[in-house]
Amino acid sequence: MWIYLSKKIAIPKDQKLYCVSWNGEQGWIACGGDGLLKVLKLESIDDGKQQKGIAAPNNLTMNQTLEGHHKAKVQVVCWNDCYRKLTSSDDKGRIVVWQLYKGTWHEEMVNARNKSVVKDMKWTADGMKICIIYEDGAVIVGSVDGSRLWGKDLKTALSRCEWSPDGKFLLFGSMKGNIHIFDSKSGSRLMSMKITCISDLPNPSLELSSQPNAQQPAGEQDILVGIVWYNGIKGYADPNSPSLAVCYINGWCQLMRSEVDENPVLLDTGMTISQAQWNSNGTILAIAGSQEQPVANEPEVKSPSSIVQFYTPYGHHLKSLKVPGTNISSLSWEGTGLRIALAVDVFVYFANVRPDYKWAYFNKTLAYCFTKVERPEHCVVFWNTKTGEKNVKYIKRLISIRGHGDFCVIATKTDGANDTKYALIMCNSIGSPVESKYIPIEPIYLAMTECHVIIASDKSIMIWQYKAQYSKQSDFSMAMNSALRTKEEIEYIFDIDDVNIKPVSSTQDKLKLNFKSADTTDTICAIYAHNESLFVARVSGLVHQYSTLPNVQLISKFILKCRPQMISASCDSKKISVIDINGIFSLHKLNTSTQLARKKKLPVTEVESLNVERKEVWDMRWSEDNPDLFAIMEKTKMYTFRGVTPEEPVMSSAYICDFNNLMIKAVLLDEIMMAPDKPSRDHVLKYETRSLRDTKEILRSVSIDDALVFIKDNPHPRLWKLLATASLEKLDFNIAYKAFIQCADYQGVQFVKRIRELDDRNKQLAEVAAHFKKTDEAEKIYTNIDRKDLAIEMRMQAGDWFGVLQLLRDGTGDDTQLATVHDKIGEYYADRQQWTKALQHYKKSDNFEKLIQIYYLVEDFKSLEKLIDTLPERSNLLVNIGDQFVSVGICEHAVTAYLKAGETKSAIDCCVELNQWDRAVQLAEKYNVKEIEDILYKYANHLVDKNKIPEAIELYQKANRNTESAKLLTKVAREVGRVKLQPMKAKMLYVMAALEIETNKKRLLDQNGESKSTASALQGLMQHDSSTGFDKNLDNSWHGAEAYHYYMLAQRQLSEENLVDALNTSLRLTEYEDVLGARELYSVLALTGYFAHDFKTCSRAFMKLETLQGSDEDKIKFQSLAVDIFTKYPPRREDQSPKNECPQCKCEASDYESHCSHCGTPFYGCVVTGRNIFVNEFWRCNSCKHRAFDHVVYKYKNCPMCHAERS
């Protein structure tokens, strides 16, 4: 930050001042002294009356003396900002509340307590309550309406009071230095604050237990001079920073985060303190008082000097302000934090503050940060000053921002350990991070160049060569391309006293993160960097100069006779400028003796101080393209220097962000921070240098020859460009040609050569006017010489299609040109999304392609449909229309467009995509599409997804996908079988599935049979096997049908009391447990075994039922039934049925076995009786291939298994 005295107001009759208070909202200033109470007001930044660009104007707008204290000493004044009230008190105990009425202040309430003197008064942050303390220990807490809430008499002499930010606590400071904490509602004492900066304070408990109304002994001075607690009304820059300051007269201060902070920041100011105050956002603590200073010409003699010290919340010293006078009795901050008022003897001094905002300017973007009450992070705004676009990011614990080129870098403090405590985030102009990096040193100082980020702590330096892609390739970056495009990032981390500097690659993180700097008292105080050099200044005045490309190395050192706070250098690094801690600007020239450097192998640099010294300077900026130009901010004036000569100053308090091409760009950060969410382009100012202004004036009022002489004396590419422009306008081609060469404008040189060859002066004038975008003037010239064709050509080259249209309407040109113009104008409106106007012009140009696009964008599908009839058949645009209709799900219009375009397949695909399967099948059949089976197959899959199984089965059959239909039929059959209510339906479904498999096999054999190739037939069957997969029901297609056939046959035989056959058929069911389920199967077997008196089989069935998974209740029922049966009937077979012989091995075989247990010969069962067929005479179905005895099947007209007609 920077601060300087800006105004002094003398009090009439030399009346001494004791107090001053600045209203934070409306800007009124109350001054109290010997028989005096005044209210002043200065112009503020938000009044709108002051000159633009001046952050803190000094003109008085109010000066009223208030009569109410009857010549008493006004010792305390305080404002209620919320309710616009002023409270004052004098040495007689009289308290007056003032209120503004019709522009003047009047008494509202008066309270006189003559027992003691008011020592302090404070309002809460919301203005609802006031606390008044008296010297004798009396405390009064009242409301804003004048009512008394509570009062208390403390048994000690009081000095200071303060509210907590939330208004819950009150702090009372005694004259002896102790601070007591009370509840603000009840007035109960809670505790005493622990004071660690003063060791000899009395016991706080004994202090309150002494005799009441103890007056301060005469002549004894207050030890405690300030308790100030930032109320947080504007948010916190750092939520963990101290906000409570306790100051003592001996110069010691205690900075605390809360009233019970166990680890406060202790600060020794080295001065006698009179008062302390936080600024409006709690980032700066101002401490006023006096300090012993050596007397001029007598160093051994010291006298007190008035001074104000400024500190951060962590106790870091920022600035010192020396003030004339013997005693600073009071100080107060303006609400904006840009000014401070000081009551010194019989004067009121005002000092302007230039804050250190966290901001950067790069790529036409201003990045700045501020805090919000509702959020703990910093709000960073990336504002494009050209387009007005604004992007907001929230970043925790932001430290600083720097920008250059197309990027900015943000330094933050993280929550990590020591090696990852700080981080850098590189962002583009919209705030998007492009790179990030943890750094091992604290980024106290930060700088950025085209390819480097330089970080410096108080003792160490880190240089990071980043690899961000550049949007603009300058000549410098092109030349240094080899250095920038390395495989990995290069970093340098070194101590300020190191001579040999080596790079640290990104793979050596351990070495980098374990870096520790050496101890030194000559610490770093400022840095500056540009593309080739780095300057590092130390507190002793020693400056190190490093080269940064291609490698970092120390090239020189030189001494300055001051302590720098800001350092900068010209674009050629031959001059440096310095602003020291006292705000004094100085200019120096660097002279390097290279021969001596070679002999000693060390750089030797002499500093030549130029005859430039300015006071109260707070900002500076060198021109980027001229080493002799620089600008400084001195108080509220901007000076531009050429060499050592200053130009006329400009009144401004703006921060310089760019100096290039004889133009200074500055931003009014003070105004922006007043409303940071709404930056305005009015906050960006541009100032021309004197040479630029003079050149324009000479060209305007004198002659080109005089301007040529002036520009030769003050050469600059921009001035040569102005001369070339003026010369062209006067058709002085010789001077224009030379000027274009001087400013390296190749296109301008070629333009001069071209128009020189024109034989008509009017044509030359027109070309010059067109070259400088004066198209109306050029058109007028062409019209006067009857060459509208050239005017049309000129308008076309300039892209002024509206002008071309106007010329064509006057009768010049043909229909082709007119269509082209309407087409271009349609593009103009389309780019700006003015669709209605764009459609009008596209219709006139018959640009159907653009019409299709816009109709689609505006969702005018009726007009899009009409275009189908307009376009010719087989036009490619019809396909585009079809695609547009498909994208929005309008099938019928899309089909119409595709069919007219001759794209039948696209029409069918459209129907398939939009699930219009009926329409797809209809089109496929109508146009005899070969891929109809694939379409039907896709449609069937769609129906399966919709759970329309019957329709899907039908479509699979039509598409000859018998395997797929069989799978679905099997799936349905399983679901029907689980219900156990319709076994006949389940059998029919299994039969249908089996017939589908048989049909598929037959079709494959028939197709391959035509080729009469065994290999092809085998391939077809293998394809069938792969399609069925591992589905057993499809592999043995009749297995499910047989299960339900024999299941129903066994029950029918049992009901007909054909017990032997029923038992035999039930035993055959054991082969189909996977289909029927164990419970149903063994239940039937137990039942038939019981009625057939085969209790052995019945017993086995019960044993199986008892071991099945199920409820305990079912198991108990089975066990109980088994006990009832087998206690009565032993588990043995009573009737032994005769055995048959295996036709192959002649061994015994049962009628229910599916194959011989000895040789494995398969047996075929009769589908009528359920018995095995061991004879050669039998009947076989031609459809399902199942067999039956001749003597029993003759009664059936259809196959009992598949129900096919029996032949």
Automatic annotation (TrEMBL):
This protein's UniProt keywords: Cell projection, Cilium, Cilium biogenesis/degradation, Cytoplasm, Cytoskeleton, Repeat, WD repeat
Gene Ontology biological process terms, A to Z: intraciliary retrograde transport; non-motile cilium assembly; protein localization to cilium
Residues of the IFT121 second beta-propeller domain: 359-688
Domain of life of the organism encoding this protein: Eukaryota
Compartment annotation: Cytoplasm, Cytoskeleton, Cilium basal body
Coiled-coil ranges from the UniProt annotation: none
Keyword Cytoplasm: yes
Domain IFT121-like TPR repeats: 1035-1132
Name under which the protein is recorded: WD repeat-containing protein
